[in-house]
Amino acid sequence: MTTLFRPWSSTLKQLLHHSHRPTFTLPSNTTSYNRFLSSSSSSTLSLPKRIGTHNGSFHCDEALGCSLLRLTSKFSGSDIVRTRDLQVLEMLDAVVDVGGVFEPSRDRYDHHQKGFNEVFGHGFDTKLSSAGLVYKHYGKEIIAKELEVDQEHPNVHRLFLAVYKNFIEAVDAADNGINQYDSDLSPKYVINTYLSSRVGRLNLNWTDPDQSSERENEAFQKAMNLTGTEFLETVHFYVQSWLPARSIVVECLAARHDVDSSGEIMVLKKSCPWKLHIFELEAEMKVEPSLKYVIYEDDRRTSWRVQAVAVGPDKFESRKPLPYQWRGLEGNELSEISGIPGCVFVHMSGFIGGNKTYEGAIEMARASLKA
Description:
By secondary structure, this protein is of the alpha/beta class. Helices cover 44% and strands 12% of the residues. The chain contains twelve helices and 13 strands. The protein has helices spanning 8-19, 30-43, 60-70, 86-90, 130-147, 154-175, 195-200, 213-254, 256-259, 278-284, 331-338, 358-370; strands spanning 23-25, 50-53, 79-82, 94-96, 102-103, 108-109, 119-121, 124-127, 265-267, 293-297, 304-308, 343-346, 352-355. A six-stranded mixed β-sheet has the order 1-3-2-4-6-5. A hairpin with a 6-residue loop joins strand 10 and strand 11 (304-308). Helix 1 (8-19) packs antiparallel against helix 8 (213-254), helix 3 (60-70) runs parallel beside helix 5 (130-147) and helix 5 (130-147) runs antiparallel to helix 6. The longest helix has 42 residues, at 213-254. The chain is elongated, with a radius of gyration of 26 Å.
């Protein structure tokens, strides 16, 4: 089987190596910057490209945007210049989250200007942050490099959308102040462990006696390392786990009528994270009626599981839970009530049950359909 991804360690080493490139905060003085360029040119024949972003407090989107640019061929190994001087920014090779311009042909990726309403497309309507803008322009190149295939390969587009949906969009929404839910209800608990929140805590504490630009730059480097590493970990997951699992679920969904004439029971031929794919593939493959149960062998290969499919992604409620009379029962008692030999258990909520044999698990699913 052909390996479709670059060895993970080499990609991470590349990111960490680039993180040691200098980060500069420049004074609002174009003459000083010109002197800096002259001194740099005298010490090296090839001046690295420079990515500009603003100095001061930073957010997740510009840290991630700069990291993404460094993962491209064009900006690999680039220096980061942190300033708000528009004349300085104009001389740089790319500018992220500052400057008031979105112009990808010149690698300008700001989203704060009046009238800006750029979205990712492909069914996504969240307003983009600077990270989303960079990803929209360079995401396919980065993913194709990880897969070691051409950008036109269909898996590149699949991953391009999946990584946006499951990683980049949340950064865009958080930076633009877009709530996850349309509700005035107070949350039942607080979540402060998401990426944007963790990046925010990397800013210098107001009680820190050293508020120098050097310390600020060190903090921004940490933010770039954090966001870039987590981005690559996400891509790594989708390349090594998500794509292979998708292929398995496609095959099993296509064979569902061989399991039961209803088409509402699927047998998973090989253990994999199937729940990530069911809902998208049902729409893509026009599965009707919707799937109700998935049957698979347990991790120890000692019994078979019957799991009810949830009503939607990230939902606990099942489309059709296992029968109420079975819930909370085990072993012989469950087999007697259900009339199916070999039953092991049914969870109190009815979302999952087990049987000692494949045939018994099939019978539990069929009986549940009729209940």
